[in-house]
Amino acid sequence: MKLIKTNLPSDQFLHLPSDFQKPIADDLYQISDFEKNFCRVKLAPTNEIKKPVLKNLPKKLTSQARQTFKLIHDISKDLKEADELVNLVKATPDISDEVFVQALMFTTGKKSLIHWKLLLIICSLFVPNKEHSRYLSAYLVRNAIDDWAEIAQLCYIRLMHVTDTGVKPSQIPEQALSGTLKFGITIAEQMFHQRKSHPNLPLPHTLYRIVSVLQLKHCEQSEGVFREPGNKKVVDKLAEELNQDKDELEGSDVTVNDLASLLKKWFGDLPNPPVPFETLDALLMDSGENDFVDFTELLPRANQTSLMFLVGFLRSLLKHADKTRMDSKNLAMCFTPAIVRVADGEDKEKAKSIDKVAPAFVEALIKRWNTDQMYPIKDEFLH
């Protein structure tokens, strides 16, 4: 059966969407227009406010607005005031847009790294008004190619995640400003953190590393690989160590089943899976193997490359099905819950529809998708 080839976008940045610079190219959503349309004052650092910055903030929230402004103005290097600010916004959700704008004020003009870090925390935890979000994301894009490129890009990645999915942590993320996490953060953020250590690798290094060690330990000779569970304590310990930049995957006490479970855990812990929540409606419109493969072109590039690498690896195992006792249907069943899932609280009927389509989709990729572009990984990607 002939494999179907798809096209990968040639993005400038592996961790950012293809069209992320569109606001600059089209000269859209300037901060000056935002000030004119929504604000009482110019968005620049100041020592105090007497009224909320946003014109449409209810008058009854004036006291809270002044309180959040003081916390943002007085933020210390260790960001110790961030917890109080976050708790205040949680107690009064209607103040969140005001907090976004207040934090923005202190990243303009004479820019402050501390306030950029605070803005990063806010972008991680709260979803801005849809109209405001366009201006905020455009502001981040313009700074993402400036002196503040790195932290502005990470703010953009976090903001797009919470805006697109509504999925956000309930508290300030552990190691919110660190680049060591490998489990529990988005593919885009993992790509951001490895942009210097693995600048040419078009998929998360952790994914490549786990698969490499599985092959090193001859997973193709292990009966029931991916079906038989590993030791949960070992798997959790390996994940925790990787989150601390410690790699013990090749340890003699680590079994193939431990690594297989670790790989499924890595996919399952993604806040937004390889097939993002926001693309599921499009997936439901497809019905055949060709359609399923073509659908992958709708995915963000790093999601495409990650999924392509995984599928190529799984297809390579089919050559050893006499030993593993795992055919394409078995492998698809093992990985479907981690690759395609609905967001918490999703409509039950939609969830049922996805549950019906998802296994066929994953099996179609294993059987029909040409993965030569990503698997086996090319030497040029590793250097």
Notes on the structure:
By secondary structure, the chain is an all-alpha fold. 52% of the residues lie in helices and 0% in strands. The protein has helices at 22-25, 31-38, 62-73, 82-91, 96-105, 113-125, 130-143, 149-165, 187-193, 205-216, 232-243, 256-268, 280-284, 289-295, 301-318, 321-324, 328-339, 348-368. The radius of gyration is 23 Å and the shape is elongated. It starts with 21 loop residues before the first helix and ends in a 15-residue tail after the last helix.
**Helical element count?**
18
CATH homologous superfamily caption of the largest domain = Rho GTPase activation protein
Q: Largest sheet, if any?
A: none
The number of distinct β-strands equals 0
Strand content: under 5%
Number of domains: 2
CATH architecture of the largest domain: Orthogonal Bundle
Helix content: 40-55%
State mean pLDDT (0 to 100 scale). Answer: 92
Poorly predicted ranges? none
The whole-angstrom Rg is 23 Å
**Structural class by secondary-structure content:** mainly alpha
Please write the string of helix (H) and strand (E) elements. Answer: HHHHHHHHHHHHHHHHHH
What is the straight-line distance between the termini? 34 Å
In CATH terms, what is the fold-level topology of the largest domain? Phosphatidylinositol 3-kinase, Chain A
CATH class of the largest domain reads Mainly Alpha
Cα shape: elongated
